[in-house]
Amino acid sequence: MSKKVSIFKDFTKGLLVENPTLVLALGLCPTLAVSSSAINGLGMGVAATFVLVMSNIIVSLIRPLVPAKIRIPIFIVVIATFVTVVKLVMAAYTPALSEALGIFIPLIVVNCIILGRAEAFASKHGVLRSAADGLGMGLGFSLTLILLGSFRELLGNGSIFGANIMGASYQPAIMMILPPGAFLSLAMMVAASRWILEKTSKGGNS
Question: Average pLDDT, stretch 174-194?
Answer without folding.
Answer: 95
